[in-house]
Write a structure and sequence with these properties.
Residues 31-185 form the ABC-type transport auxiliary lipoprotein component domain. This is Membrane integrity-associated transporter subunit PqiC. The chain is an alpha/beta fold and 198 residues long. It has one domain: Rossmann fold, CATH 3.40.50. Helix content is 33%, strand content 31%. It has helices at residues 2-19, 85-103, 168-196; strands at 26-28, 45-49, 62-66, 73-81, 106-108, 119-130, 135-146, 151-162. The strands form two sheets. A five-stranded mixed sheet has the order 5-2-6-7-8, with helices on one face. A hairpin with a 4-residue loop joins strand 6 and strand 7 (135-146). The N and C termini lie far apart (91 Å).
Amino acid sequence: MQRNILILSLVLLALLSGCGRSAPTRYFLLESALDPVKADSLPSKNLRVAQVTVPDYLDRNSIVSRVNGQTELVVSQFHAWAEPVAHGVRRVVQEVLTPPMLAAGFNVLAAGDDTRADYVLLIDLQRLDGNFDSCAVLEARWTLKNRHDDVIARGIYADAEAVNGKTYDTLTAAESRMVRRMAEHLGNRLPELTRSKP
């Protein structure tokens, strides 16, 4: 009898320990998918991409998706950004802007470079999420200022891309492509704006 109780206790303990395990968290990065840029010297004029602002619902590590495109959000427990969303957007924008701005005679300052910039680009990310088997959406406002803090230009950028599948790989890949397209749009606009304004 005691032997049966001992075996039953061991089986229950094994089952309970198995229930206590959770799936490992998977981490994702926004990616520009560009080759690194090489330069032996950099222009003296500078552009700084300021810290990106994000809405409170995105100011977390967990990846956020929507339910049926409605107002209900799902905050994933086991799928997270490897860095804050604001940092990822800023990094991708810097990477994508570097080639066109170098061609226009501007160095895009690295995130840790405290050199005073001739121009500052501010990005206010208002939405970056999506729902599976539907679409991902990006909405942002941007502002370009000169070294005297005068506003040179402002704009709104919006984009959407189909998410074909129910995996976070497909959702985050779509979000990466939208951030890259936003940066490419800015890369087309900024050289002209910096040439035409003091």
